[in-house]
Amino acid sequence: MIVVTRLNDSQFAINPDLIERIHASPDTTLVMVDGAKFIVTESLDEVIEKIARFRAHVISLAYLTEDSEYRTGARPLEIVGGPHAIADIIEPGSAVPARPRRI
Questions:
Q1: Ramachandran assignment for 82, one of left (phi > 0), alpha (psi -120 to 50 degrees), beta (any other)
Q2: Residue 69 CA neighbour count, 13 Å, CB half
Q3: CA distances, 13 to each of 53, 60, 100 (Å)
Q4: Could you tell me what percent of the chain has a pLDDT over 70?
Q5: Which three-class secondary structure state does DSSP give residue 40?
Q6: How much is the pTM?
Q7: What distance in Å separates the CA atoms of residue 100 and residue 38, rounded to the nearest whole number?
Q8: pLDDT confidence bin for 61, thresholds 50/70/90
Q9: Residue 35 and which of 21, 28, 94, 102 are 20 to 30 A apart at CA?
């Protein structure tokens, strides 16, 4: 989540993965995938920077060591194995089978 500020100076957190586009004319407007719009005081560049920092933080969590799991309470991300792993279903280098399209 990133924290942004409304025009009345109240702050709120928003999931940057649900932002479809950002307009800056003249106020910065966040347009969400569901069509909701939020006007914020941050500039277009500031919102983009917040999103980049958020995503970098998420990626950094994937590289936690086992020692840091005990300090932070977070556990490192793992590759899914077992019967649901795509690598176990498809031969390396082969094409992914296509499903028929439903009309």
A1: left
A2: 7
A3: 14, 20, 40
A4: 64
A5: strand
A6: 0.61
A7: 39
A8: confident
A9: 102
At position 57, the amino acid (one-letter code) is H
pLDDT of residue 15: 96
Cis peptide before 16 (omega within 30 of 0): no
Which tokens in the block code for residue 70? 């005990």
Q: Above 80 in pLDDT, residue 4?
A: yes
Sign of the four-CA dihedral 68, 70, 74, 77: positive
Average pLDDT, rounded, for the chain: 80
Are 4 and 38 contacting, i.e. CB atoms less than 8 angstroms apart?
Answer: yes
AA letter at 65? T
Half-sphere exposure for 30 (CA within 13 Å, toward CB): 26
